[in-house]
Every structure is written in C-alpha cells, then in structure tokens.
C-alpha cells in the first residue's frame, strides 16, 4: 500500500511541534508491504499557486491519502481549502466522469490545540472533533474515497514530550495499518 501524507501547516519547520513530529514519524515509517511519502504543501506552494496536474499525479499513485493539519478555528488551514478547490475538479474527482479517486482511502490526521474534554457534546465547544470533520467526510463521500476514522491529537498546545512520542508511534501504526471507516453518524 502506498500512503501519501499531505501536510498542511503554514509554519511546519518554524514553530510546529506536533505536526513536525508527526511528519517526522511518517517519514521514518518502514514497513515491508507499505510505503509512506510525506509532502509539505506550504513549502511546495507558499504562494498558493498549486500545480494541479502534479497533485493529481500524486493522488493517482496513492492508495491511502492523508491530510495532516492543525485545527484552526474548528476547520482546516487555508491552503487545504485552496488545494481542495483547485485539485478536486469536477469531471476528475467527482461528477459523472469524475472517478479518479474512487476506491482510495482518505484519512485525516488533525491536531486541535485544546484538550480532549473540550471537544465533547457536554464540553466547552459542544462538538466532538469528529463532528467538526464532517465537511471533510462529505467531501470524501463525493469523491468516492473510503473515509477512515481520523487520527486525532488533542491538546496540541500543551502536549507533553512523552505523550507526543506516544502519538508519533501511534501515527506510524495508523499510517500503515488497517483503519476502520468512520460511519456517517458515529
């Protein structure tokens, strides 16, 4: 299985602790029946001018596509939205002839800054992280990919070194292992 991790963090190498460590763990994955490619999209497209054909080629070659990003205002960084708008074209990714991604897996690796207990229906934010990811799940449904249960690193603003290392190990396993699909209403 070929997994491609698209990292969307505007300051990945400057001041990202969590996403930088997760990307490092992904780059270090060694598995006999799997390969992992990591792409830093803000480094590739600092001007937001996305090479659509290159991105389509990357997606075509992948079996599992992972969007890795910090959660900003309960959503994605701006470049991920721009990337979706540009790359997931009608007639290629969706629509009656848009079947290029059908059957592939789409995973989300997200790192909200606040602690887990805030992301609960009875918590401070009233929504789970999975609730907040539903627009991405709807996108997955539209483009015909299998939406995997997300890899969530809550508390990114204050995560301990020990917990971050445990998350990096878990991420490596998640990237290459069997990951169940997230149901539409679970």
TrEMBL record:
Signal peptide (from-to): none
Keyword Electron transport (UniProt): no
GO terms, molecular function: electron transfer activity; FMN binding; NAD(P)H dehydrogenase (quinone) activity
Domain Flavodoxin-like fold: 1-174
Transmembrane regions: none
Keyword Coiled coil: no
Keywords: Oxidoreductase
InterPro entries: Flavodoxin_fold, Flavoprotein-like_sf, KefG/KefF
SUPFAM superfamilies: Flavoproteins
PANTHER family linked: GLUTATHIONE-REGULATED POTASSIUM-EFFLUX SYSTEM ANCILLARY PROTEIN KEFG
Protein name according to UniProt: Flavoprotein-like domain
Organism encoding this protein: Propionibacterium ruminifibrarum
Lineage: Bacteria, Bacillati, Actinomycetota, Actinomycetes, Propionibacteriales
């Amino acid at each position: 299985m070929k997994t491609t991790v698209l990292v969307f963090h505007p300051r990945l190498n400057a001041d990202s602790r969590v996403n930088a460590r997760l990307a490092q763990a992904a780059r270090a994955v060694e598995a006999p029946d799997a390969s992992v490619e990591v792409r830093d999209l803000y480094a590739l497209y600092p001007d937001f001018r996305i090479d659509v054909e290159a991105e389509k080629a990357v997606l075509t070659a992948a079996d599992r596509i992972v969007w890795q990003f910090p959660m900003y205002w309960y959503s994605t960084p701006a470049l991920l939205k721009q990337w979706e708008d540009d790359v997931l074209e009608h007639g290629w990714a969706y629509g009656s002839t848009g079947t290029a991604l059908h059957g592939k897996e789409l995973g989300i690796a997200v790192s909200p800054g606040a602690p887990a207990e805030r992301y609960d229906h009875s918590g401070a934010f009233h929504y789970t992280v999975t609730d907040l990811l539903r627009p991405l799940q709807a996108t997955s449904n539209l483009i015909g990919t299998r939406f995997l249960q997300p890899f969530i690193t809550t508390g990114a603003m204050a995560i301990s070194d020990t917990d971050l290392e445990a998350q990096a190990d878990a991420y490596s396993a998640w990237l290459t292992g069997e990951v169940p699909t997230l149901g539409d209403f679970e």
